[in-house]
Specification:
mainly alpha; single chain; elongated; about 130 residues
């Protein structure tokens, strides 16, 4: 049984203003809800990062790729600051400890409770380290 091809420009319904192609999902398009949630999360995260020292903020940005999406190693970050990777690890640990403070984490908490799929590797790492401190 052969199927006949149909044009995406074929009218649907009684009016000529709706085409068959209007009902085909664009898999390449970003989901507006996800884009908005990501934008709000990024804004809140930047607010929390602003409460850290400039050095702590820069270390976390480089380590987790917050600016350019490229996560750097302790060694790479250490070279930029002219310090050892151990010192960068200490700065990172202190900054993450500060970010786990209830007043700071409360700003981000709603983003991770609302949907169970919002648990990317960065948040899992952040939460795992928080749980380990207890």
């Amino acid at each position: 049984m052969a199927q006949q091809p149909i044009s995406l420009q074929s009218p649907v319904g009684d009016s000529d203003d709706t085409n068959f192609g209007d009902f085909i999902e664009d898999k390449g398009a970003e989901n507006p809800y996800d884009m908005t949630a990501y934008s709000l999360l990024r804004e809140k995260l930047m607010d929390v990062l602003d409460s850290l020292t400039q050095r702590e903020r820069k270390v976390l940005s480089l380590r987790f790729g917050l600016q350019d999406g490229y996560s750097r190693t302790l060694e790479e970050v250490g070279k930029q600051f002219n310090v050892t990777r151990e010192r960068i690890r200490q700065i990172e640990a202190k900054a993450l400890r500060k970010m786990r403070h209830p007043t700071r984490i409360r700003q981000l908490h709603g983003f991770f409770d609302a949907e169970s799929n919002n648990s990317g590797p960065g948040f899992d790492h952040f939460k795992r380290n928080k749980d380990a401190e207890k």
